[in-house]
Fold this protein.
Amino acid sequence: MLNSRFRASIAGLAFVTAGIAPESYSQTEDTLTIYGLINKELRYVAQSEDAGKESSVAVTDVDGFESRIGVKGSQDGDFKISYVAEVGVNSGRDASSDYRIRPRIFKVDLDTKGYGVITIGQDWMPSALFYIKMDGLAATVAQNYNLDTSYVVGGLGYGSLQGLGYNFRAFRDQIRYASPTWNGLTYKLSYDTNGPHDYDGVQRNVEHFLQYTRDTLNVGLLYADCESCDADMKLPSIGLAANIKTAGGLAAGFNYGLQTIGHGTDENGDMEEIIVTRIFASFSYQKDENTYSLTYGNATLGDQDYIVALDETISANYKEASQQQIGLGYKNMITAKTALKLTIAQMSISADEPIVSDKKENVAQVVALGVQTGF
């Protein structure tokens, strides 16, 4: 917690920047907290020699869940205002400085105290945290968001399936509304233009997420649409996910989803959607400071033959291509805010046709020792 003089200086600077005199604003409570998290793994990766890939050992961040530092606070009056400013430091990406330090969350929440919460700024999308919480190996190399997996077994000229057992878009500038909870139901609606300030609205994304929570059951229903990604066709995502937790320390998460990730033309020149089917399952058991997890994720392209992929991310040859992963994890909370983690996973990617030259698949085994601590 910062001292009162420092907080007052920051608050005064904010008012000057906004062009608002401090005397014109009244509040009953103002809090400001600096927080952070360090998330590192020592990884051993053994890859298939047939795929022409090399094995490696390295210390790295977990992509998407990298080490970070931020500030958060709230102001409480007739409305409650909450804000977060957070940056991530990712040594696990390549040498490009664009990805080493990046803004993660810069948002303001306006709680109307009875009519819902309005969010504006860069944040997780409505469905993102739901999926993360049901993944027993989230924030490890084997998380099913597929960032690290695609780096390990990808790189064979194969277009990204944009997720593994589940998919979401994260850290986008958006405006979002979350309704009050009624009989366990909460509805969230977000709108964004994929991050950049595109005044022509080249890509307009809308996500609807309906969540039902009752006792140990948590169910989410997703419908997301890109309204203008293509002149002729839209790119919807649909998904049904469930997360169950019991008093005995058992937890299970499931997801089934369909997503159109591009367009192509068939042999007759007719437009076709390139569809990915996603399946995910997670099982965890927690006893005292120990948590054991098993997860499985799969993403598979449809069986259509595509002559041309308009967005050039999916080759015409990759009929029924698939990417899958099975992971085992152990986590021990050595303090209230520090965990040691062991993750073992097998990752694979394959296609009916060669991905590069005569290579149709790549299989990798990963062992990671991780430490995660927060403050």
About this structure: The radius of gyration is 22 Å.
